[in-house]
Amino acid sequence: MKKLTIGAIKKRKEALPLVMITAYDAIFARLFSESADIILVGDSLNMSFGGNPDTLSVTMDQMLYHTNAVCKGAPDTFVIIDMPFGTYTDETSAFNNAMRVYRETPADAVKIEGGADKANIIRHLTANGIAVCGHIGLLPQAFRAEGGYKIKGKTEDEALSLICDAQAVEAAGAFCMVIEGVKADVATRVAQSVSIPVIGIGAGNGVDGQVLVFSDMLGFYEPFVPKFVKQYINGAKKVKEAVAAYTIEVQNREFPNENYIY
């Protein structure tokens, strides 16, 4: 697949839906690059990869490390990196941290959580050569302040607020945005209110693409499966079966046999 440009991504608005998936290392990035339009190095790695209860403690250095690994595994795929919690509280810190992304990795863009309240940050970055993907709706980095992960768009006021957020993000210069945890009909209205692609996660199929955390959609994470996640394989079961078979063969001295020795 030819690597998408920002212009090509914008042209997918109301056309062929964009396919985005998370990755945190070169191995999975290489596997996903054959099908995905965009790979997101999500701060979700702090939970699924690092075993932490939320995304908040991941650092810029950790994100840069994983982004470099992903870019090596998928050099011909458009890569977006999540800006970690606390790294874009003002225009100066946001630009300094985004510059680190561009200087220290081959990533194509950064992703920032927030709507109208972050428009000034997005505008400052885009005005200084940083490509920005927005993120509105349910904001994982704000879950403590909101008292949990809460679905958005349940009232008309919330719907109108989301539309305002989307339009502010677009006006600030973002080339696309993620919309998370929003009632499907409202997410459709939001997508129709802007001219850049809106990529959903837990936001129905009336948007311009979809993103999932790979460990969720491949069935690797057993403790909890979000309602919006479809598990395309039971990865945890398959891995356990493979390791159990390996264990039996090792203990019975069946592995390595003559096919696997020098």
Give the topology:
Elements: H1 6-10, E1 18-22, H2 26-32, E2 38-41, H3 45-48, H4 60-73, E3 78-82, H5 91-104, E4 109-113, H6 119-127, E5 132-137, H7 143-146, H8 156-171, E6 176-180, H9 184-192, E7 198-201, E8 209-212, H10 214-217, H11 235-251
Parallel strand pairs: 1-2, 1-8, 2-3, 3-4, 4-5, 5-6, 6-7, 7-8
Helix pairs in contact: 2-4, 5-6, 8-9
Summary tags:
single chain, 262 residues, globular, eight-stranded parallel β-barrel, alpha/beta, 8 strands
- Could you name the ranges where pLDDT drops below 50 across 5 or more consecutive residues? none
Strand order of the largest sheet: 1-2-3-4-5-6-7-8
One letter per element, helices H and strands E, the order comes to HEHEHHEHEHEHHEHEEHH
Oligomer: single chain
User: Alpha-carbon distance between the termini?
Assistant: 38 Å
Summing up helix and strand content along with how strands pair, one would put the structural category as: alpha/beta
**How many runs of DSSP E, i.e. beta strands?**
8
Q: What is the CA-atom radius of gyration, in angstroms?
A: 20 Å
Main pleated-sheet profile: 8 strands, parallel, barrel
Shape: globular
The helix content, as a percent range, equals 25-40%
Mean pLDDT: 97
Question: What amount of the residues lies in strands?
Answer: 5-15%
Number of helices: 11
